[in-house]
Amino acid sequence: MEATSTRFLIDTSIWLEFLLDQERAEEAEAMFKAVPLARFALTEFSLYSIGLGLTRQGQGEDFLVFLRRNFLDRSLRRIRLRGGELLRLPEAMDEFRLDFDDAYQYVAATSRELDLVSFDTDFDRTDIERLEPTEVLDEFE
Q: 99: buried, middle or exposed (CB in 10 Å: 19+, 13-18, 0-12)?
């Protein structure tokens, strides 16, 4: 895989931790500062979840800033599941005991051969390795 290609699917939990300045926000921030944005992807589902999370907290302006910083130059890759991939969601939910949003992330990561970065330990029940921001950082330091 070439150095500038997308490699990591960043789960909603990482984005919200960072954007809402929660307990592990510094870990996420360090990763975002050290790794080129072009190496990251997020799902369309995550994008909507981030919008919901921020606007529910009265941070609609922060959502606009997030969109401008990450999408105006198109560095951050956005993934949308296609029809056949959507059909895999119920199977992933049943096989790994995932809820819908986690199954969406799982299918997106596996279908595009991306490493999944998440704080959500539910992914530890799947057949893919879950990375945390500190593990991604280790590869870039």
A: exposed
Give the fold, CATH level 3, of 8-140. Rossmann fold (3.40.50)
Q: How far apart are CA 16 and CA 106, in angstroms?
A: 18
Hey, what long-range contacts does 60-63 have (CB within 8 A, 24 or more apart)? Answer: 62/19
CB contact at 8 A, 109 and 115: yes
Q: Tell me: the pLDDT tens digits for 26-42?
A: 999 999 999 998 999 99
SS3 assignment, position 20: coil
Average pLDDT score, the chain: 93
User: What are the structural domain ranges in the chain?
Assistant: 8-140
